[in-house]
Amino acid sequence: MKKRSRAWICVLPLYIFTIFFVAVPLVYVIVLSLLSRDVTWGVTGKFTLSNYARIFESSYLNVFKQSLTVAFLTTLITSLIGYPFGYFMARLPKKRRSIVMTFVIVPFWTNALVRIYGWIILLRSQGLLNSVLQIIGIVSEPLKILYTLPAVIIGMVYSLLPFMIFAVYSSAEKMDFSLVDAARDLGAGRIKAFWTITFRCTLPGLLSGFVLVFVPSIGLFFISDLLGGGKIMLVGNLIQNQLLTSRDWPFGAALSVVMMIMTLFVIWIYRRITRVKDLEGLL
Amino acid sequence: MNKKLHISDAYLILVLLLMYLPIFVVIVYSFNGSKLSTVWGGFSFQWYRNLIHNSQLMQCLKNSLILAFLSCSVSAVVGTIGAVGITRIRWRTRGFLESVCIIPIMIPEIILGMVFLAFFSFLGMKFGMLTLVIAHTAFCIPYIFMMVKARLAGMDSSLEDAALDLGAPPVRVFLDITLPLITPAVLSGTLLAFAMSLDDVVISFFVTGPNTNTLPVKIFSQMKTGVTPEINALCTLMLAATFLIVILSRLISKKFK
Amino acid sequence: MKQTILKLDNINKSFGKNQVLHDISLDVSEGEFITFLGPSGCGKTTMLRIIAGLLEPDSGRVFLGGEDVTSLPPNKRNVNTIFQNYALFPHMNVETNIGYGLRIKGVKKTEIKKRVKNMLSLVQLEGFEKKMPNELSGGQRQRVAIARAAINNPRVLLLDEPLGALDLQLRRYMQTELKSLQTTLGITFIYITHDQEEAMNMSDRIVVMRDGRFEQIDTPSRLYDYPKTSFTASFVGMANLINAEILSTNGDTVNARTSAGVISVLINGPLPDPDQSAVLCIRSENVLLSKEPASGALAADVTDSAYANGLMTTHLRLSDGTVIAASKYGLCTDFHAGDSVFVSFASAVIVDRRDNNEKTQ
Predict the structure, then answer these.
(1) What is the mean pLDDT of residues B66-85?
(2) Count of B-C CB contacts under 8 Å
(3) B216 vs A113: CB contact, 8 Å cut-off?
(4) B172/C contact by beta carbon, under 8 A
(5) What confidence tens digit (pLDDT) does each residue in C73-121 have?
């Protein structure tokens, strides 16, 4: 029809941009990961799988292990904090809900570094947290939190919590709460009704939250840089090192490809479970 | 509703307080008269004054704003007309295009940064504003594209039919009906993209040139070497700007609801 | 005979493998109120969209006032549509909504204002110019939609289940309203509904549709009295359909054997051939009940009876298990559930005649 014949002009810029600046670069990185490194820092055209083989060296495997541990812990803690938050928020009266929403969005849109910087001030050994703890008398010596794993996890949880909240909120908001009443009416207790109805209905949001938190937490190198003081090595830091310090691009590319595959795998599992194409509450 | 404070309300407030704690700390310290962050040296605007005279930081701020403005304008146009167009074509590659075009916000940022770094070097492009704009456009488009697409999916298609039926040619249908109805989505998508662009450290870190440091990249490097209290002041200002943007976007979405 | 304003000629339309319209042909005359009646999915909305130009048929032609408009886009056709949900532009007020068509045509602002005002008084919405669509009730939106379409003086006005979203009372009221509006405007109305009551109340002619084909085209009364198929008979009014074998004919009366016994009944319309099987359509008001046996009457048990809208409806089970309905005006308490009664039939129509079947199948 006439309407359709002009639509292709509209999608053309999107097609061109996406193919040239997203698809082609991605393919290039995959190709790069299969090439060997030149003696200096360039790349030679020789095909090799050694970049992938190197990942299985124990020092690199450990980085992956540590990265996954951080990601799992981050996901677990954000869901423990974020799930009730998103759920309670959805149950608020409309006006208050919108206020709380605004309050959640502000830090989310605020520069991540600003917020991380606040944590550095707080967690320092002469920082606010330690001062308070010492004044109350819980600890006598200042606690060393900054530049440890807990600090990195605090930073990750803090940065990624809004994703979890939005995801849970958006599925809880869509939920028909009269279903809970119906379940109660049919004889289910409070806990049973929550488990069989509410939890089931909000599960897509929770799962989406898992993905939205888990995926970036593997890659947020600047949080482990700043709060881990360079002592906590994550895959993100490894890639950054390979690119900018060691200048071993093919290996960096191989690491990226593996990470990308891990990401797509997580999203694929999510889609298999929920049968939803888009992630809940992404926007 | 009764006025009693429920456990759920208390929980919401507690988590929000924790969320704002580091932000408050930054704001308070930006008014600290002492150079040492461990000591309270009295209330002072000193760091704000220093900030204005710090031409390096100001240049970075300018870079960041130019970058966000350019990449959001391009993304708003490409993303919006792309979303409108994609609902009307029936090409086989449609689903593929949609998946690929949102990849930039699905994969960890560092991969996108790495991909662009490698690709731009391969092309022999000079790192600077152009590479920054391309990279930022890549992750700004999906936000706008998805918001507009969601809005279009929720829009009653018979509205466009009705306008055609009343004699409007397709271009007028778009200008009179479709565009005004998707405007809120375009605006809030663009604002979100703007905030994300201003916020981005990871991707800019990889594709920035020697003279085009963005503010977040500059702050990042300063934070690693040693922080001057001016950063506190700068962060506070950025916070205020973000707050304004958020309020603005909430107002927009409210007005059109 | 009035002039033909709209002519559909052998229209076919498929969506993928699914053919939704089969060889549709129809002439609509000027000023006619014609209704397409059928269950959802019968293709009536598709046909409307083809007339409006929002869809193009796979084959066949559409003529408007003698001109072939088949491949003309909707914005170039002098036809307007009232959509199922009214499709009022949510970002424009009542005045701008109604004036939209004129504005597209480039009519002067003052002229538009005047004509909108006239139109608003015609649909009894004076003073509503500045209201937004979301501030209006269902009935008011409906009127704005009508005004927005009618102001362009279309040659044909298409209405796609416009009363579907209203409650029963408002629906009844709007039926008379629409009909009188149509008379005032003198525009041809093509109306789509699945509600037989609406169709019967407003239409000059009704087109019964089923699976993308026309089942029957007739005036409401003929449709009721002389349905040609069992589908039409049961879709329009309450009908009892009984399979029978014709034994003999005697004038207009036939003797027929049903599985519940032999009956004798007066046939309206064409008579069946003897020694043939036929489907008898007997309207519920033509089912007569009596407590006394009579020749040609069948024994039956009353299963239940109900009184609604001034009509007493009694359900009966014949000896072979067939359930039929009998109705009578006024409250009647003669028959109760469990009673044994005798049933005779005042008149019947033969439906699904073979020559018909060949045409429609």
Answers:
(1) 94
(2) 61
(3) yes
(4) yes
(5) 888 888 999 988 889 999 999 999 999 999 999 999 999 999 999 999 9
Q: Is C156 on the interface with B (CB under 8 A)?
A: no
- Do the Cβ atoms of B25 and B38 come closer than 8 Å? no
**Angle at CA C222, nearest 5°, toward C217 and C224?**
100
DSSP B176: I
What ipTM was predicted for this assembly?
Answer: 0.85
Rounded to whole angstroms, the Cα distance separating C62 from C56 reads 10
- Contact flag B161-C101 (C-beta cutoff 8 Å): no
Using CB atoms and an 8 Å cut-off, which of residues 98-157 of chain A contact chain B?
A: 98, 100-107, 109-122, 124, 126-128
d(Cα C280, Cα A78) in Å, to the nearest integer?
Answer: 72
The model carries a pTM of 0.81
Mean pLDDT within B232-252? 82
Query: Within a 13 Å sphere around the CA of C217, how many CA atoms are in the beta-carbon half?
Result: 12
Are residues B158 and C73, on separate chains, in Cβ contact within 8 Å?
Answer: no
pLDDT digits (tens, 9 = 90+) for A204-234: 889 989 988 998 888 788 888 888 887 888 8
Strands C323-329 and C311-318: antiparallel
- Most C-contacting residue of B88, B90, B159, B166 (CB-CB within 10 A), to test interface: B166
**Helix, strand or coil for residue C50?**
helix
Q: Does B5 touch chain C (CB under 8 A)?
A: no
Q: Report d(CA C312, CA A180) in Å as an integer.
A: 43
Across the interface, which of C75, C85, C148 has its CB nearest the CB of B158?
A: C85
Listed by number, the residues of chain B in 213-232 with a beta carbon closer than 8 Å to a beta carbon of chain A are 216, 219-220, 223-224, 227, 231-232
| Correct CATH for C238-360 of 3.40.630.190, 2.60.40.1120, 1.10.150.120, 2.40.50.140 | 2.40.50.140
Write down the residue that tokens 């690119």 correspond to.
A243
Identify the burial level of C12 via C-beta atoms within 10 angstroms of its C-beta, where 0-12 means exposed, 13-18 middle and 19 or more buried. middle
Domains of chain A: 56-274 (1.10.3720.10)
Q: pLDDT tens for residues A4-15?
A: 457 788 889 999
Domain spanning B54-255 has what CATH number? Answer: 1.10.3720.10
Neighboring chain A residues of B134 at a CB cutoff of 8 Å: 21
Q: Do B82 and A10 touch (CB under 8 A)?
A: yes
Distance separating alpha carbons of residues A85 and C289, to the nearest angstrom: 69
Mutate to test the interface with B, among C55, C80, C86, C89 (most CBs of B within 10 A): C89
| Residue ranges of chain C whose pLDDT lies below 50 | 356-361
Residue environment code for A196-207, b if the CB has 16+ CB neighbours within 10 A, otherwise e: ebbeebbebbbb
Structural domain boundaries in chain B: 54-255
Q: Tens digit of pLDDT for each residue in B112-164?
A: 999 999 999 889 899 999 999 999 999 999 999 988 998 898 888 889 999 99
Residue A36 has pLDDT above 50, yes or no: yes
Q: Which CATH superfamily does the domain covering C4-230 fall into?
A: P-loop containing nucleotide triphosphate hydrolases (3.40.50.300)
How high is the pLDDT of residue C357?
44
Nearest-CA residue of chain C relative to B167? C75
Give pLDDT tens digits for A103-151: 888 888 787 888 888 888 888 877 778 878 888 877 777 778 888 888 9
- Strands laid side by side in the C287-290 sheet: C287-290, C340-345, C298-308, C311-318, C323-329
Structure tokens, C303:
């299963």
* B169 part of contact set with chain C, CB < 8 Å: yes
Distance CA A247, CA A39 (A): 11
Name chain A's partners: 3 or more CB pairs within 8 A. B
Instruction: Give the confidence band of A20 by pLDDT, cuts at 50, 70, 90.
Output: very high
Report CB contact under 8 Å: B84, A10. yes
- Looking at the DSSP bridge assignments, the partners of residue C326 are C314
